[in-house]
Amino acid sequence: MKYALIGCGRIAANHVKAVANNNLDFAAMCDVDESKFDVMLDKADVGRFEKTARYADYKQMLAEHPEIELVAIATESGEHARIALDCIDAGKHVIIEKPIAMSIEDAEEIIRRAQGAGVKVSACHQNRFNVAVQKLREALDQGRFGSLSHGSIDVRWNRNKAYYDQAPWRGTWEQDGGCLMNQCIHGIDLLRWMMGDEVTEVFAATRQRQHDYLEAEDVGVGVVKFANGSVGTIEGTTNVYPKNLEETLCVFGETGTVKIGGTSCNNIDVWDFADEREGDAGSAGLKEATSNVYGNGHTVLYADMIQAIQEDRTPYVDAVAGRNALEIVLAMYKSQKTGLPVTLPLKDFSSMDMVGEFE
């Protein structure tokens, strides 16, 4: 399957590794900064892609390589929707790095236009494929928790000025958003997915406490009401000193408690169920080794997307999942802006509606 990558920055090496692991035909790569190509390939340690065609203009790339079937978009977040819609209109299947868009309207348009064009879209929430996360999901699907009580996601990380100095778009409302949109959206996706997906209300407060050189928030706390009666809490920050502390997901039910920890939801810290089963001992204390906070999920997400195209089915993590995670973040932003709970489904809200919030 012919493949192309648009955006060759910080996360791109994980995509290239997934390309290699899935034996995709890497036809072309694109970035407005040509210096990023070799840096990306060196980081990915995949020398055989050195002769892959290179472009500064993705529209030219698409025009000159009509054989490309699958495109991944890993640019700055504010460009995701525009580029994705152009790729969809060109008949390409698309993997979109998180967040899928910066406005709920753009996310809805991606879903609508992809359906009209008959192409697949996968949101790159790769942590759904973590071994610990998959075990939790299996237990939920088996009904081992009974009635859900509540859940929580805590993303307690560090991002210092050196990180933001690497790219001027980081921390801006137009191109990135703050810690909730960038660092915490993976965990927010997991919480919503585990707790029943349908959300009725979100109430939140966000602040900018230690990064006054940014436009957006560096800490946010929220409460989520789910349609099934359960509640969830969200804590996300990039203010933890001196380094990343944890990304912890907890689910509590009448007959089960699970806590997934580690720096990126990759370890099982607690695994307790009323109906003890064979295999529970192996789940308790599980630790999945990862080389960075992005985890190992890109390769599996790519494999699923390839299979979804071949079998003409919906990807495991589809555009609706991307839209749902985005909706929670935007609802938290809107709640901060208005000081009020926000009823879902959310309509007509964008990160750009937050401009000036912390000035």
CA radius of gyration is 20 Å
> Biggest β-sheet: count, sense, barrel?
8 strands, mixed
Q: Give me the CATH superfamily of the largest domain.
A: Dihydrodipicolinate Reductase, domain 2
Distance between the termini: 48 Å
Low-confidence stretches at least 5 residues in length (pLDDT < 50)?
Answer: none
Please tally the helical runs, counting DSSP H or I stretches of 4 or more residues: 11
What does this structure look like?
The chain is of the alpha/beta class. The protein folds into two domains: 145 residues, Rossmann fold; 194 residues, Dihydrodipicolinate Reductase, domain 2 (2-Layer Sandwich). Strands 13-12-11-7-10-9-8-14 form an eight-stranded mixed beta sheet. It is globular, with a radius of gyration of 20 Å.
Key attributes of the depicted protein:
alpha/beta, single chain, six-stranded parallel sheet, 359 residues, eight-stranded mixed sheet, 23% strand, Dihydrodipicolinate Reductase, domain 2
